[in-house]
């Protein structure tokens, strides 16, 4: 028996990697995703086939997946497929389901209020089992199997600052959605001689993981993308983390034990294709796992307040339940 794990890079891949550890394993498995610094690092040591990127509402990209889905079925005898989306799931799951493969689509934990466009389409595809990570909108069509954030809980933290304050600002991997509303004011707060340095008397060292946000005109050194392992190491060493409210970034912050400030993107500013990030930030704040703030409203007091809380893993998280 062979399981296909299928996801777009970014938050979808991060979520699937975590959920895969809570799903009963088949003797053989294969991952299909896009190739970038994150996927090469995160999936090192696993069997992976990389395919061209499938973007948002990318019909041609979806159609390009079909020959590969056919080839995988013939060559590898796929018996089960599990995906967290997004568009890439449309290129594989309907085809595989029609040919008898047990297909499972797990809606992103970022979708707190209801399914994404991908989810709404796949819910209507025969023999594709669909899952929500929230009980409050589960129903006969959307099975609740668990939540990727259930494995984390807040814990007290004793701040121990060294000779400098290490800050990570992470904006995720989406290339089509810039987020300058966060970066521009924050670059002033975190600059040499800026408000944070003046408040603490310590120099501030910042890793700016900027994704697709253009920052060439700002006084900062950007690292648009970096391997997942390198980002995790930076997060684990950071004193303070400021993050966009993406599902993958949230999971990376939590896995590193960081209680981050989370700032949500809005569609009306061209920062996202909808406003689901606000729902996610509010959900994580209600769990006590993040401090939720609006872009442009992050203060020095907010930054320093995060030093009082850490995040730890629950000792024995329960399995994610797939339907038979």
Automatic annotation (TrEMBL):
Pfam family, one: Glyco_tran_28_C
Gene3D superfamilies found in the cross-reference section: Glycogen Phosphorylase B
Annotated ranges, domain Glycosyl transferase family 28 C-terminal: 220-289
InterPro entries: Glyco_trans_28_C
Protein name as catalogued: Glycosyltransferase family 28
């Amino acid at each position: 028996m062979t399981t296909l794990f299928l996801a777009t890079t970014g938050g979808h891949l991060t979520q699937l990697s975590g959920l895969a550890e809570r799903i009963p394993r088949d003797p053989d498995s294969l991952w299909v995703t896009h190739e970038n610094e994150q996927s090469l690092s995160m999936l090192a040591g696993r069997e992976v086939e990389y395919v061209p990127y499938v973007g948002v509402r990318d019909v041609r990209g979806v159609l390009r997946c079909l020959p590969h889905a056919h080839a995988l079925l013939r060559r590898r005898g796929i018996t089960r497929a599990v995906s967290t989306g997004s568009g890439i799931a449309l290129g594989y799951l309907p085809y595989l389901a029609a040919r008898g493969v047990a297909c499972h689509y797990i809606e992103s934990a970022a979708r707190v209020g209801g399914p994404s466009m991908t989810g709404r389409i796949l819910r209507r595809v025969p023999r594709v089992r669909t899952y929500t990570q929230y009980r409050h909108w589960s129903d006969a069509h959307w099975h609740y199997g668990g939540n990727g954030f259930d494995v984390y809980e807040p814990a007290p933290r004793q701040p121990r600052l060294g000779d400098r304050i290490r800050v990570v600002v992470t904006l995720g991997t989406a290339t089509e959605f810039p987020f300058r509303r966060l970066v521009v004011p924050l670059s002033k707060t975190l600059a040499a001689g800026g408000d944070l340095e003046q408040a603490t008397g310590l120099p501030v060292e910042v890793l700016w993981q900027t994704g697709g946000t253009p920052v060439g005109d700002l006084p900062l050194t950007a690292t648009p993308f970096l391997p997942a392992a390198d980002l995790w190491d930076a997060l684990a060493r950071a004193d303070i983390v400021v993050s966009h409210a993406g599902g993958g970034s949230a999971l990376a912050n939590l896995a590193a034990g960081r209680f981050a400030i989370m700032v949500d993107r809005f569609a009306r500013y061209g920062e996202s294709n909808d406003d689901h990030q606000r729902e996610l930030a509010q959900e994580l704040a209600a769990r006590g796992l993040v401090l939720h703030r609006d872009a442009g409203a992050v203060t020095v007091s907010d930054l320093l307040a995060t030093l009082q809380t850490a995040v730890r893993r629950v000792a024995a998280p329960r399995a994610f339940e797939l339907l038979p």
